[in-house]
Amino acid sequence: VFVAEEEDGRIVGYATLRHFQNETETTFRAEYQVHPIRRGRGLEERILNRVYARAEERLGECKTEIVDFASSLVVPDNARRVILERFGMREVRRFWRMVRPTLNDIPEPHFPEGIITRAYRLGHDDELAHRADTEIFRDHWGHSDQPLEMWQHYVAQSSFKPELTVVAENPATREMGGFCTIAINAEENKRLGVKRGWIDILGVRRAYRKQGLGTALILAGLRNLHQAGLTQAALGCDSENLTGATRIYERVGFRVDRTRIAMRKRMRGPREDAARVSPQTVSYVSTL
């Protein structure tokens, strides 16, 4: 974490730098914020340079041929986009926050034959869920395998709601076919004046796909949120998701609420191909 201070000690900006690695590439992901009174006066560039220099110091630790420096911006923050592009970064992906504004009309879910559902059991389900999560998302863009301890840290957070989370299980094999984890950020809800729950992670293992399990899981999760007194739901997703999840979200009533653009700069390794954003994605986002 990097902090920018005025001479009187007031904090006017900060940045975080995180490190992710998979079998083929390493990413240093930087996010930063600058107080409005200091924007446009060069502080953003100074923070980026400082964080990038720290990433360069750690290049020797990276075991992969490819190393990238990444950041992001929320549409329509054109000022930040200009800063990142001047820094040599380019758009590589778009991610959506999708919102379902009401929870009063959720259809009853219909699960595939042979599947039972239950709540998440803290401790007991951790290893099963971690294995399922690793398999489900291994081929997703930007994914890197995480240790079991990271999953255990995730489910230990106060925002994670095991009693509302939906686990789909094959009783014959005791295999976890998929899950829909639920989170409620009480602090965010208080700040925004809303009663919102999050479909935090929706995943279906390959052997259980194309059977309607994903749709059933998200509907069950939404019904749980409604029964818990929430009035709206949100989720985050990759706009170019390979499994067609975005179509499921739209069918059950979610609409794009915010777009985040991932930006990247190659630090080491072969030169990247030109940025790829599908025409469908561009036209959809432009209507926001």
Sheet with most strands: 11 strands, mixed
By DSSP (H or I, 4+ residues per run), the number of helices equals 8
The strand count comes to 11
Q: Could you state the order of secondary-structure elements as H and E?
A: EEEHEHEEHHEEHEHEHEH
Any guess at the CATH architecture of the largest domain? 3-Layer(aba) Sandwich
Q: Low-confidence parts lasting 5 or more residues at pLDDT below 50?
A: 274-288
CATH topology description of the largest domain = Aminopeptidase
Name the average pLDDT. Answer: 91
Characterize the overall form.
Answer: globular
Radius of gyration: 21 Å
Provide the structure class.
alpha+beta
The top level CATH class name of the largest domain:
Alpha Beta
**Roughly what percent helix?**
25-40%
Strand order of the largest sheet: 1-2-3-4-11-5-10-9-8-7-6
Describe the model.
It is a single chain. With 288 residues, the protein is of the alpha+beta class. It folds into 2 domains: 121 residues, Aminopeptidase, CATH 3.40.630; 128 residues, Aminopeptidase, CATH 3.40.630. The protein contains 8 helices and 11 strands. Strands 1-2-3-4-11-5-10-9-8-7-6 form an 11-stranded mixed beta sheet, with helices on both faces. The longest helix is centred in the N-terminal third of the chain and has 15 residues. The radius of gyration is 21 Å and the shape is globular. It starts with a strand and ends with a helix. The C terminus is likely disordered.
